[in-house]
Amino acid sequence: MPIVNRAADLQPEIQAWRRDIHEHPELGYEERRTSAFVADRLREFGCDEVATGLGGTGVVGVIKGRKPAGNADVKVIGLRADMDALPIEEATGLPYASKISGKMHACGHDGHTAMLLGAARYLAETRNFAGQAVVIFQPAEEGGFGAAAMIRDGLFERFAIDQVYGMHNGPGIPVGSFAIRPGPIMASTDAVNIHIEGRGGHAARPHLSIDSVMVGAQLITALQSIVARSVDPLEAAVVSMCEFHAGNARNVIPQTAEIRGTVRTLTPEVRALVEKRVREVVGGVAQMTGAKIDLEYLRGYPVVVNHAAQTDFAIKVAEDVAGNGNVQEMPPLMGGEDFAYMLEKRPGAFIFCGNGDSAGLHHPAYNFDDEAIVFGTSYWIKLVESTLVA
What digits encode the pLDDT tens for the residues 94-110? Predict the structure, then answer.
């Protein structure tokens, strides 16, 4: 397969970086060691500019090509990797397992960071492109809105980025393969927090109480009807109430209950519809039961929407790396990604790089497959060299 030979030569070093980062996981906005590691490598590579502190702990490197950009439509391309870990106790038993109790790289961000570092080293060595490549190492992807924080700090304006691309490893996708789709590829992620105030009392005298448990059970059941009966069957939506806390004794009707969950959708229209229906259902159950129900509906990451032209281009580049037949069009995922914010600001595409038959993302036995390094790194390199032409 036409991987970049230099990327294959660098594989052992990139793997060593990856495993070092894996041993020292840091949660969102705590990536001080990781950021310093990244910035030190970028300076060693001879990047023309290394900026730190964007979005808190983000790092950006600028690499100028040796060819003049001239009148090219795209003069600056941004490549993004995320750096943060998860609050999970690792269960891999690997020699390079996390040394930090309760934290691990269970989503492969260690691999993402290492592959982009490998590409940065190659691009700084060769500079066989016109314009500028901007490598973006982002903090706090795991629910911390790190992409939005970097954007607020002027990421796109400061570095004049014309297009932006992201990559994630994909368990279940063979190593050496890629998966992508135009349009919505990952879901919006909204949070639902519900506080129920009933009237506590003795379990044997329920008629004198407003049972917060019963109210919560009715509410959860009613919320499931939104997807079943309010959303077009040809559209996608998820309403999952994943926490229900009430009571601490078998013979006491609790005064209060707490419910927390998530809503996932793939279009702004369905997102707005589901939010509207959640509010209506909560109000209806409150009126029906006499309980006081407070709803906090928090909009999270937007839908990740790949731009058509850039997706087509990403497919061609991935096929150049992996070979025809090894780039598949995938169905959209209901997981979320804050790369969505970057794609709202600039055209680009988000692609998945095969991680083989590994444990799933966010699983304590997950591990990034180092055999994927040459493919992800080669993709980044060829994306830059194919986009930034004189």
Answer: 999 999 999 999 999 99
Burial class (CB in 10 A: 0-12, 13-18, 19+), 190: buried
* Local structure of 64: helix, strand or coil: strand
Query: CA 390, CA 116: separation in Å to the nearest integer?
Result: 23
pTM of structure: 0.96
CA-nearest of 342, 340, 260 to 301 is 340
What amino acid is encoded at 7 in this protein? A
- For residues 127 and 107, give the distance between their C-alpha atoms in angstroms, rounded to a whole number: 31
Give dist(CA 232, CA 129) in Å, integer: 47
8 A C-beta contact, residue 304 and residue 186: yes
Region 286-303: mean pLDDT is: 98
Cα gap 38→40, rounded to integer Å: 5
Q: In the structure encoding, which two tokens stand for residue 104, read together?
A: 């691990």
Q: How far apart are CA 204 and CA 201, in angstroms?
A: 9
> Has residue 390 got a pLDDT over 90?
no
Would you state the torsion angle of the CA atoms of residues 384, 266, 359, 380, taken in this order, to the nearest 10 degrees? 0
The one-letter amino acid at 166:
G
Give the whole-angstrom CA distance, residue 352 versus residue 179.
5
For 207, the 3-state DSSP assignment is helix
- Sign, Cα dihedral of 171, 107, 382, 145: positive
Pick from 4, 33, 132: which is nearest to 74 by CA?
132
CB neighbour burial string for 50-87, b if at least 16 within 10 angstroms, e if fewer: bbeebbbbbbbbbbbbeeebeebebbbbbbbbbbbbbe
